[in-house]
Each structure stands twice: as C-alpha cells, then as structure tokens.
Design a protein that fits this description.
Number of domains: 2
Helix content: 25-40%
Distance between the termini: 23 Å
CATH superfamily of the largest domain: Thiolase/Chalcone synthase
Order of helices and strands: EHEEHHEHHHEHEHEHEHEHHEHHEEEE
CATH class of the largest domain: Alpha Beta
Strand order of the largest sheet: 5-4-6-7-1-8-14-13-9-10
Radius of gyration: 20 Å
CATH topology of the largest domain: Peroxisomal Thiolase, Chain A, domain 1
Shape: globular
Largest sheet: 10 strands, mixed
Length: 412
C-alpha cells in the first residue's frame, strides 16, 4: 500500500438551513441567502440566544420508512438524507465488492435530542420509562452505522468525533483510507442536530453564542461587531472514490481531494492557540500534500465562526500558512454567515462549497460584513459572490479541544 492512489469526489448531498438539496443550497449560498432565524423547536423566552439556523422543510420519510425514522435521532435522519442524495448521484454502489466500500461519518455531539428527551422521562416518570432505543439513538456512531446498513458497506464504518472539526476529519480520514488501499470508495461527511434546550443553554452559558436578535446582525465572521456564533444544524455527504475506478465507470467527478492536515493545539479545551500554530500547521500539511508552490490561485473556506478569538486567530493562521503576500491575494469567505455553525456537519458542507467553487467559478460571500475588524484584513468576499478562476480550494475546521483540520481540493 504505497499511499499514492488519487481520490476524487463523485457524489454530493446536503440537508441544511439554506436548502436540503444540492441545487437549492448552492443557489442560496451564492445569492447570499441568510438561513438564520428565530428558533422554533422550543420556547426561547428564558434563553438569551433566540436565533438559530434550523433545517426547514426536510422530510425524513423521503429517505427512510416510518419505523426507521422513529428509531433514529434527528442528526441521523439528516445524515441519511444527505447520504442518500450523494450515493444516488454517484452510482458507486454495486460497482465494488461490499467490503471495499466504507463509511466515515462525523458528528460532534450525536443524538442530543434523544439524550435530552430520555433524561426528561427518567426524571419525571422513572427509569422504567426510558426507551430501550435510547442508547442506539444517542450514540454518535449511529449515522455511520445506519448508512452502512442501508448500502451494505462492509468496510470500516467509523465516526469522527472532533467537535467542529468532525466533518473535515471524517473526510480526511476517508481520503487516507482510499489513498492507502483500505477502501476503494467511502461515503463520508458529517451531521448535527443540537438545537435542543440543553445544547443552547450550555453554549449560552459558556458565552459562545451570539445573543443578537436581528438575523442580519447575528453571524458576523470577521466583522468587529461579532459576538459569538449562531448554532446551525443539518448534514452534508460526499462520496469519495479511487480515481481510476471512477474514470473506468464514467462517473461524474467534482474534483480531487488532494491534501489533508490534522493537528491539535494542545492548549485549551475551548480557546484557540493565541499564535494559531495548530491551525497554521494543519493548513501547511494540506498545502504540502496538494503540491502548493505559491503559483496557484487559492480560495479558503474559512472556519469563520464569528467569535472574537477564532476570527483573528484564523486570519493569522492563513497568513502563516500561505505567507503574508499570498494570503492577501487569496479569496477567503465564511459561509457560516449564512448557514450558522453546523458543528459536526460544518466541515462537510464547507468541503462541498469548495468543490462547487472549482466546478462553477463562483465564490460565495461572507454576508453582513459591514464593519471589518482591522485585525481581520484579508479579502473575505464581503456581501456578494464573485466570479473567479481558482486552482486550489482549502476548507478549514477548528474545533473545541484544539482540533484543527484542513482539506485541499483541486480540479481533475
């Protein structure tokens, strides 16, 4: 296993606050559509943060039968919706032996809806009322397990659980599995459904969430008015495939996954390293694998959460990784300004954004960037999409616990 096999993307799927199919989501992202609004899942009267980026209009029964839906948490339902879209588009199932197809699907938290509901039953009605499905519905590996069962994927079925980097780490580890010959195709991505009372309360009390009441003044990456992230949810899925196999069967190829970096700050459970060393190293690793030599035109889909420390630190990381001059030449945007922070799904949908940038030559904006922070001085594509020829796309994910992941993509 020489590790030199090329890996491409042959299928995409999205369930998100800006649309639950690929065409709708991409149209809205390039149009600068804001998927943030009042939380409607529960009464937020006693909560300081009242906004979220909810998935609207998603019907899980379009992707699973009623009995399967009732046995699964919302995060797994989102995962199945995105995975079915990606797999059906790819057409890879049936072209390989089952043991050569794997599933690497991330989630930062897993079945928080289930945990919250079942603890409520335990406290109000006693232990005998807790569902026998509580454990399989709440565990974070269940999205990967359910997808594997659906498509008889008998290779590895693994979650990545690295907070906000989960989706990116899942894709990166899937890349390595194919590159080194452990699989020929992997269904990968991430899912999250954490707009739940305990989740919102926890993020509020650690002062991570924006408490703005205006959706257009809430998720503000790189803006000096920013005051925290807006929680989002959903899922995104990609089918990764060994290049020669994809070509031989005539598959549509969105692009090549050509680099991956994964590091840890080893600094603090929530705060990023003040010198952005870990984030910069992850980017450098991905750039080196991609063969970056300074001549390529670069787009960076930034982690860009809109928290005071993250945005300054990530700007510094980009400068360290690309070099000051080339960092100023790069296009950088945060689609979290529209989707909110989808936590374990964020890296997956942002990887898809990178692939669509390569395909279409359109770079989505950072919306509502009205008062740029002087410490965040790169070209963040403010407010409106731009047309640009891009050679290399990077997707950054920086998670609690100091987890940093960077993915690199290029055209085939």
């Amino acid at each position: 296993m020489d590790g030199n096999r090329r890996v491409v993307v042959t299928g995409l799927g999205v369930v998100s606050p800006v649309g639950s199919d690929m065409d709708t989501a991409w149209k809205n992202l390039t149009a600068g559509y804001n998927g943030i609004g009042p939380i409607t899942y529960f009464d937020t009267t006693d909560y300081k943060a009242k906004l979220g980026a909810q998935v609207m209009g998603f019907d899980p029964m379009a992707y699973m039968d009623r009995s399967e839906m009732l046995r699964s948490d919302r995060f797994a339902q989102y995962a199945m919706g995105a995975a079915v879209q990606a797999v059906e588009e790819s057409g890879v199932i049936g072209t390989l032996p089952p043991d050569r197809v794997a599933v690497y699907f991330g989630s930062g938290i897993g079945g928080l809806n289930t945990v919250s509901a079942e603890i409520g039953k335990l406290q109000s009605r006693g232990p005998h009322r807790v569902s026998p499905l509580c454990v399989p519905m709440m565990i974070a590996n269940m999205a990967a397990g359910m997808i594997a069962i659906r498509y008889n994927c008998q290779g590895a079925a693994l979650p990545a659980v690295t907070a906000c980097a989960s989706g990116s780490n899942a894709i990166g580890e899937a890349l390595r599995a194919i590159r080194h010959g452990y699989a020929d195709a992997v269904i990968t991505g991430g899912a999250e459904a954490s707009i739940v009372p305990v989740g919102i309360a926890g993020f509020i009390n650690m002062k991570a969430l924006s408490v703005a009441e205006d959706p257009d003044a809430a998720s503000l990456p790189f803006d000096e008015r920013r005051g925290g992230f807006v929680i989002g949810e959903g899922a995104a899925a990609l089918v990764l495939e060994e290049y020669e196999h994809a070509v031989a069967r005539g598959a549509k190829i969105y692009g090549e996954v050509c680099g991956y970096g994964s590091t840890c700050d080893a600094h603090h459970i929530t705060a990023p390293h003040p010198e952005a060393e870990g984030g910069a190293r992850a980017m450098v690793q991905a750039l080196e694998e991609a063969g970056y030599d300074g001549t390529q035109r670069v787009y960076v889909n930034a982690h860009g959460t809109g928290t005071p420390l993250n945005d300054v630190g990530e700007t510094l990381a980009i400068k360290k990784a690309l070099g000051q001059e080339r960092a100023y030449q790069a296009l950088v945007s945060s689609t979290k300004s529209m989707t909110g922070h989808m936590l374990g799904a964020a890296g997956a949908i942002e990887a898809i954004v990178c692939l669509k940038v390569l395909e279409t030559g359109i770079v989505p904006p950072t919306i509502n960037l009205r008062q740029p922070d002087p410490k965040c001085d790169l070209n963040y594509v403010p407010n409106s999409a731009v047309e640009a020829e891009v050679d290399l796309c990077l997707s950054n994910s920086l998670g609690f616990g100091g987890h940093n992941a960077c993915l690199a993509f290029r055209k085939v």
